[in-house]
Every structure is written in structure tokens, then in C-alpha cells.
Amino acid sequence: MLKSPESAEQFNAFRNRVLATPGLLDQFRAVPDLPSFVALVQTTAAQQGFEFSVEEIHAALRASQQAWIERWI
Amino acid sequence: MNPDLLQGWVPLQLLWRNGQPSLDWGFVGENRFTESFFEQTIARCLRHPANLLFRHETSLDVLEELLAARLGLAPSGFVFHLSRCGSTLVAQMLASLASTVVISEARPIDQVLRAHFKNPAADDAVKVRWLRGLLNALGQPRTGRERHFFVKLDSWHVLQLPLLAKAFPQVPWIFLYRDPVEVMVSQARQPGGQMVPGVIEMEFPGLNPPEFTSLDERCAWVLARVCDAAVAHRSCGRGRLVHFRELPGMVTRWLPKFFGMDCSEAELAQMRHAAQFNAKTPSLNYEDDSAAKQREATAALKELARRWIAGPYEKLEQLRAAQTRANGG
Questions:
Q1: Is the Cβ–Cβ distance between A25 and B27 less than 8 Å?
Q2: Interchain CB contact of B44 with A (< 8 Å)
Q3: Cis peptide before B210 (omega within 30 of 0)
């Protein structure tokens, strides 16, 4: 999980911004590996007025992975 | 929500919060559903971090907006089955054609069919609406080459065949089954979710399971309920019963015509080629394991199959024989 409710809320706001912008999604999907993906998320978020550490982005990914794995529970 | 934002996306699952559902969507782009099960293709797509991290969550009303804005392929056929009886082989043969979309045992379909357990307000009328929207979303063309859309259901969904027939009255269906002893051997090796108490509500048509002395006995009871449902709903819509012994030949012999497909010789050859491989483990060749499963069955397991399933199985065989006669042998 992200460290604080505020950062989780911020990440959700960023996520919604990305989902409403198909061009941004295409850029993220074109990235070939995880470190480049995380770097691009961080840069793009900054351009959109959000600030996330590398660790926070990894935490968001882990949370998504965890929720997906636990979907049957 | 603008339906254009969902181009290339499919519903992955219903998320329930306080009895209210929403839809979790995942991006599949032009990826075809070529794996044995819906979940496996989704897992492949979610391996990319962008697809894992950025997923739409919408209300179910979006399904109707999508239905109005972008009509997908109408289903060409439904595949019901007893479990462990060749339904994945049929699905994989159909999926070997670039002209098909084959959705196998998709979780959101199951969740809609069992939605009344989460919220009693999800009655049949609601479920019919959701099913139409959901299948429209799943049956969207993604490569531009698709002409036919098939849905393989979970084994317990034959209990809800009338509901699916109400939602899609024109769609033909098949019900696949095989010797119950062979199904029970496979389930004993690796039980499906429906065989484990509490995982799938097998009571949903109003049946109450009796007390069981073993998991094998519950398995026999569940299989009997599925066979009973296939017998009861045999005349619902346009359906055909198929025995495992008819595989894989029937898939190229009469299924395309029954499902309204006009297959070229090359496409039939493509399906025959797909039938050479084990449908769930394509690195292995397909082989009929009936004799091996009969040998593996214990006397106790055979007795359970006889006690619980022999009756409905015999009825299925009688109905299939009548069907064969009606179709000219």
C-alpha cells in the first residue's frame, strides 16, 4: 500500500487523469521494462502536477498486483 | 463515460462494495483470447505494468452505453459442459481461427449469473440486462478479422441455461458430457472450485445439498445436478447434446454449420491441427485418456458415480440418441 491515505488519493487522481488521456496510456504501454516504466510514470506525474517517489510507484504496482491475486478471496 | 475510451478494453470482474457492483476493466488491445481460459489471457495482458496499474473502474451502466454506441459481435454459440469432458478442446479448436473470439469461463459472466447472492435486487431481469451488455463488451472485434463469437460457460452455468436463453434466444448451444466415472477421476485428481463446499453456491436453483460423507460424494452430487439441469433444459432454445466420444470430429463435421459458421477447407484443417494438442497443456499431444481413467477409478468412486449420476447420465444418452435419430443418424 502507499504510505499515507493522502498519497493513495493523489495516486488515484493521477490514475484518473491518465485513464482519461489515451495518448498517455499508449506511451506507458510502449515502455519495454519496469524501471523505464516507473521513471516515465514519475516524469509524467510531475508534468501533471503530482509528485511520487519511485518507492510510491512501486507500492502502487504492488497494491494492484495484490488486489488482482486476492480477487478470489 | 465516453465509450471510445474503452476501445480495446474488456471487463475483468465485478467488484462488490456494500452490495453494489462496479466493473474493473483491463486493456487487451488486439490480443486474442488464445489461452485455454479467459483468466490466462488476462494474466498475460496484465504482465505489462501499464495494464496492471491503469485500469478503468466504471458502473455497470457503462455496459448499456457501450451497447448503444458500439455493437460487438453477437454470440454465435454457447458451450455448456459437465467439466473435464473436452469443452476446452472444443474452445481451443474454435479459437485456432483468426475469425473467432472465444471467451472461456470468464469470471464476470459467472459473477453476473451469481449476482443475486451479493444483492437480492439482482433478479433475472437485471441479470439479462447485464449479460447482454457484458457479452457485447467481451465480443467487441479487436483485430478487425473476427466474424464469430463463442462463449464457453462454467460447468454449473447449465443450471441457468434458461436465463441465458432468455437473454440470447437465438444463440445455439451445446452441452458436452462424458462417462461420469471418468469425470470423477479427473475431479478427484484436482477438484474444481464447484466441488469444494462454500466456493460456488450450487444451491442457486433452489437445491439444498444433503450431508455428504466425502468430497467424492459431493462431487458426484454436483455432477448429477449439472446432468439433471442439462436434461431439464434440453428443449430450451436450440441446443444439442455432445458426448466426449464424438470429439474432436464433431467440431469440424457439424458444429460450424450448427453455430452458423461458413468454414473454408483451410479453416477446418486449422481446427483439426489444433485438436492434436492437449487443450490445457498445448505442449503435450492430445490423447483419449478414457481407458486410463476407467482403470484408475476405485470401486468406491464407481459406486458413487452409479448411485448419484447413472440416472441423469442415462437420460442424457437417451436424449442424445433421439437427437441423432432426428438428425438423420
A1: yes
A2: no
A3: no
- Report the 10 Å Cβ neighbour count for B182: 21
Do B53 and A64 make contact, defined as CB atoms within 8 angstroms?
yes
CB distance B260 to B76 below 8 Å:
yes
Question: Quick check: A37 and B55 CB within 8 A?
Answer: no
CA distance B106 to B95: 15
Q: Is B51 on the interface with A (CB under 8 A)?
A: yes
CB interface of A with B, residues 2-61, below 8 Å: 15, 18-20, 22, 25, 28-29, 31, 34, 37-38, 41, 60-61
Residues of B in contact with A15 (CB under 8 A): 53-54
ipTM for this prediction: 0.94
Smallest CA–CA distance from B14 into chain A, residue: A71
CB pairs under 8 A between A and B: 38
DSSP B179-219: -HHHHHHHHHHS--GGGSTTTS-TTTTT------SSHHHHH
> pLDDT tens digit string along A49-67?
999 999 999 999 999 999 9
At position B259, the amino acid (one-letter code) is: F
DSSP B306: I
Nearest CA in chain A to B15: A71
Among partner residues B13, B29, B52, which is closest to A64 by beta-carbon distance?
Answer: B52
Closest to A59 measured CA to CA, from A67, A70, A49, A48: A67
Q: What is the pLDDT of residues B110-128, one digit of tens each?
A: 999 999 989 999 999 999 9
**Is B54–A18 a contact, with Cβ atoms under 8 angstroms apart?**
yes
pTM of the model: 0.94
